[in-house]
């Protein structure tokens, strides 16, 4: 009687399955790394374009720098980035930061611009969203964006429904997409406090350095 080959035994089958799993896993890991790198590159490029869109007066990639502050969120300390834009002479022309919060369908992520005197916004660009087409995704349209240019953040931003804004800190919610509009407003209000505090600390630190010289 012919002896069974190794591949026909339980041990052989296990070895074949294990080898296959290792090979497939390695291929998937390599593919994931390749895709992840591309996704990250696209994300950074989207951020870069958004920075230029919300800070007026910057003309080159070297015309903004990142200020990183450690903040506590839900009991955990994490880095928070603020982008400082400056002109060719090095004069500050504005700031921007990423704000995000839950929308109707998923997380909404946006770049928010602040004027040099940071009590009004200089612009808004949504960089990530999957809101309802034709309704919630109107938060990515210029008509919605234009409401944030020059918008006061003191007191905090408010939204109104089915009527024109009457105050310097109000925007009109997108008709039929109040949840998406509210998500944008809430995310900005939540993050603006962190940004203003960080900028005050940065200004104080800079004044201390200047006094030494």
Describe this structure in words.
The protein is built from 3 helices and 7 strands. It is α+β, with helices and mostly antiparallel strands and 213 residues long. The C terminus is likely disordered. Strand 4 and strand 5 form a beta hairpin. It has one domain. The N and C termini lie far apart (96 Å).
Q: Briefly, what is this?
A:
With 213 residues, this protein is α+β, with helices and mostly antiparallel strands. The protein has three helices and seven strands.
> How is the largest sheet built, in terms of strand order?
1-2-3-4-5
Weakly predicted, low-confidence segments: 207-213
Number of strands: 7
Largest sheet: 5 strands, antiparallel
Number of domains: 1
Oligomer: single chain
Secondary-structure class: alpha+beta
Give the distance, in angstroms, between the N- and C-terminal Cα atoms. 96 Å
Specify the helix fraction band.
25-40%
Total helical elements: 3
Topology (SSEs and partners):
Layout: H1 10-54, E1 64-73, E2 76-86, E3 92-102, E4 107-114, E5 121-128, H2 142-145, E6 158-160, E7 170-172, H3 178-212
Parallel strand pairs: 6-7
Antiparallel strand pairs: 1-2, 2-3, 3-4, 4-5
Question: Which features characterize this protein?
Answer:
single chain, 213 residues, alpha+beta, 5-stranded antiparallel beta sheet, two-stranded parallel sheet, 3 helices, 39% helix, globular
């Amino acid at each position: 009687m012919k002896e069974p080959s190794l591949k026909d035994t339980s041990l052989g089958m296990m070895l074949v399955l294990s080898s296959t799993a290792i090979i497939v896993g390695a291929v998937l890991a390599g593919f994931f790394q390749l895709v992840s790198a591309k996704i990250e590159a696209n994300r950074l490029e989207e951020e870069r374009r958004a920075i230029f869109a919300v800070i007026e007066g910057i003309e080159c990639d070297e015309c903004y720098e990142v200020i990183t502050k450690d903040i506590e969120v839900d009991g955990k300390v994490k880095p928070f980035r603020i982008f400082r834009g400056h002109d060719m002479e090095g004069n500050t022309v504005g700031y921007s930061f990423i704000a995000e919060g839950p929308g109707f369908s998923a997380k909404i992520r946006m770049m928010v611009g602040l004027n040099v005197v940071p009590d009004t916004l200089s612009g808004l660009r949504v960089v990530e969203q999957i809101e309802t087409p034709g309704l919630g995704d109107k938060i990515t349209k210029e008509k919605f964006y234009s409401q944030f240019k020059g918008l006061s953040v003191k007191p905090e931003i408010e939204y109104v429904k089915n009527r024109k804004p009457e105050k310097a800190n109000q925007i009109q919610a997108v008709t039929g997409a109040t949840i998406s509009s509210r998500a944008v407003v809430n995310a900005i209000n939540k993050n603006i406090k962190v940004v203003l505090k960080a900028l005050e600390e940065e200004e104080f630190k800079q004044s201390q350095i200047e006094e030494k010289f």
